[in-house]
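Methods — Computational structure assignment.
A single polypeptide chain was analysed. Its primary sequence is given first, followed by the predicted tertiary structure written as structure tokens.
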Amino acid sequence: MKKGFSLIETLVATAIIVMASVGPLALAGQSLAQANYIKDQIVATFLAQEGLEIMRNYRDTLGIAEIALLYTGINGTHCVTGDPCSVSGIDMITTPATNNYFVANCDNDPCLALNYDSENSLYCYPSTGGTAEAYCSGTNAPSIFTRSITVEQIVADKEYKIHSIVTWRRGYGPRTIELTENLFERTW
């Protein structure tokens, strides 16, 4: 009677165990990648929605004429397809007569990436030394998300379509979320 396993029996048993464990490990890896993608997609959707809300507040505070100026570029900021703007939801401008949000042309295409302020759990822009900029006040690092806003004229001085586009890159190429909303002249 033989005692123990032969070398061939040991190799066969090891091969069976390896093949049985590769499938669940591959599935776990794919599940983690899918969870990261879904998390990024949710954050991007919220950032795009925030962009629309900032522009809605911009209209509610200053009127549809200010949205028209972003379309025409007369005030120096031009937010149209091919020449988008960046907006920040952090109010760093304290003068009541001015815009409460940072809206600026993207000097480089694409727009500047948002930073993530881990102390305040906010996405915002890095400070470049300007006095009227909205920026991250806490500890922050560049994020993978870039938000741009474009304005499309539907009816002059009455209706404008706002496009809030968030792009990010993780894995295989860039991803994009775009939300739109039509803003009308205030009637109150």
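Note: The longest helix spans residues 7-62.
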